[in-house]
Automatic annotation (TrEMBL):
<keyword id="KW-0812">Transmembrane</keyword>
<dbReference type="InterPro" id="IPR004843">
    <property type="entry name" value="Calcineurin-like_PHP"/>
</dbReference>
<keyword id="KW-1133">Transmembrane helix</keyword>
<dbReference type="InterPro" id="IPR029052">
    <property type="entry name" value="Metallo-depent_PP-like"/>
</dbReference>
<protein>
    <submittedName>
        <fullName>Phosphoesterase</fullName>
    </submittedName>
</protein>
<feature type="transmembrane region" description="Helical">
    <location>
        <begin position="69"/>
        <end position="90"/>
    </location>
</feature>
<dbReference type="GO" id="GO:0016787">
    <property type="term" value="F:hydrolase activity"/>
</dbReference>
<keyword id="KW-0472">Membrane</keyword>
<feature type="domain" description="Calcineurin-like phosphoesterase">
    <location>
        <begin position="144"/>
        <end position="308"/>
    </location>
</feature>
<feature type="transmembrane region" description="Helical">
    <location>
        <begin position="6"/>
        <end position="29"/>
    </location>
</feature>
<dbReference type="Pfam" id="PF00149">
    <property type="entry name" value="Metallophos"/>
</dbReference>
<dbReference type="InterPro" id="IPR051158">
    <property type="entry name" value="Metallophosphoesterase_sf"/>
</dbReference>
<feature type="transmembrane region" description="Helical">
    <location>
        <begin position="41"/>
        <end position="63"/>
    </location>
</feature>
<feature type="transmembrane region" description="Helical">
    <location>
        <begin position="97"/>
        <end position="118"/>
    </location>
</feature>
Length: 364
């Protein structure tokens, strides 16, 4: 399908959905409050439905946040409104039911905006413990603390304030090693540079270093190499299909994102490891090749990307698409960790997921 045809079809479908939502809202407002300001209401709906698209041409915190909220309303409305319409017709179009359903749905959306905002902007630290004693007896008793975070999506909405929360968590947890699992920026590096976020993120430090990989959103704006330069300036190791050995302790493989069709396979990368007696740690933005990592003899694979659906029931989709869409999964010698992410994409909301940082304590 040509791009312009797809665009026309998308605009048509999206417009019909917005009209459906707007019509239901108008019917309720008239019944509950005798609301008669049709032009004002139409202008409001037009502004809400176009805000996110306008923000692509006019970067704006306000437009992105409002547009994101509207997208969440659209998503949930497509589940709730058809059910409400069916109930209304089943009970013979009773006006009291119409008003009651409207208040109930409005209360639900208020809950989503308040609770979802709290989950998105209030990160938690999730602790995990993994033992490798049976595989590396010669290092028995040693311990390493790894801070793993992904999906920062730094941009016009997620900026210095939220990033500082991550820096504060890092200082408090005092990890030995830090992994950044991709989607560091939200498509465009300009807000990162204009808001001088390099000065903030460079405060993330660990004795064994900070290792980062790109995610799909780090490619979209064509700024991947600029991002790499920024990360190197921050003192980070930005790995794109590279292998690094740390102090005879571990081999770290940092991969290009799955969306890069030219990236090396896990087998190609493991063949570059010099000391095959060391545990292998893989950082791979999307958790699509857990089975391949296991077969290649890796001991850890760290991923993000899924956001754990971000807004339920999308978590049902991510759990169906990925073997480990969130949390810790063990496959024989391999430990898979997939984080729900520190930031968010689209709506500044999380329902059924939480902004998080993973702290993994590895004992040998």
């Amino acid at each position: 399908m040509p791009n312009y045809v797809f665009l026309v079809v998308f605009i048509l479908i999206y417009s019909l959905i917005c009209f459906y939502i707007a019509y239901n809202g108008w019917v309720w407002l008239k019944a509950a409050f005798s609301f008669r300001y049709k032009k004002t209401y139409s202008f409001l709906i037009a502004g809400l439905s176009s805000a996110l698209f306008i923000s692509y041409f006019i970067p704006s915190f306000f437009l992105e946040v409002i547009g994101g909220f509207w997208m969440a309303i659209v998503g949930y409305s497509m589940i709730i409104l058809p059910l409400a319409n069916v109930l209304y017709f089943l009970f013979k179009r009773r006006n009291t039911l119409k008003i009651g359903l409207g208040f109930t749905i409005s209360a639900f959306f208020i809950f989503v905006l308040i609770y979802g905002s709290y989950n998105a902007w209030s990160p938690v630290v999730r602790e995990y413990e993994v033992s490798l004693n049976e595989q590396f007896d010669e290092w028995q008793g040693e311990e390493m603390r790894i801070l793993f975070v992904a999906d920062l999506h730094l941009g016009n909405v997620i900026g210095e304030r939220h990033l500082q929360r991550l820096v504060d968590i890092t200082s408090r947890e005092n990890p030995d090693l830090i992994f950044l699992g991709g989607d560091i920026i939200n498509d465009n590096i300009s807000p990162f540079q204009e808001n001088e976020l390099l000065d903030v993120i460079s405060k993330m430090q660990a004795p064994l270093g900070v290792f980062a990989v790109p995610g799909n959103h780090d490619y979209y704006g064509g700024d991947l190499l600029l991002l790499r330069d920024e990360m190197v300036t921050a003192g980070f190791h930005f790995l794109m299909d590279e292998v690094v050995t740390i102090e005879d302790t571990m081999s770290i493989i940092g991969r290009h994102d799955y969306s890069n069709e030219e990236r090396k396979s896990i087998q190609e990368l493991t063949s570059e490891i010099v000391d095959d007696e060391l545990p292998i740690f893989i950082i791979d933005h999307q958790p699509r090749e857990i089975d391949v990592a296991e077969e290649a003899g890796a001991h850890f694979i760290f991923s993000g990307h899924t956001h754990r659906g971000q807004l339920m029931p999308a978590n049902l989709i991510t759990s169906a698409l990925f073997e480990n869409d969130w949390g810790h999964l063990q496959r024989n010698q391999l430990h898979s960790f997939t984080t729900s992410g520190f930031g968010f994409w689209g709506p500044a909301l999380r329902i059924g997921s939480r902004s998080e940082v993973m702290m993994i304590t590895v004992t040998y």
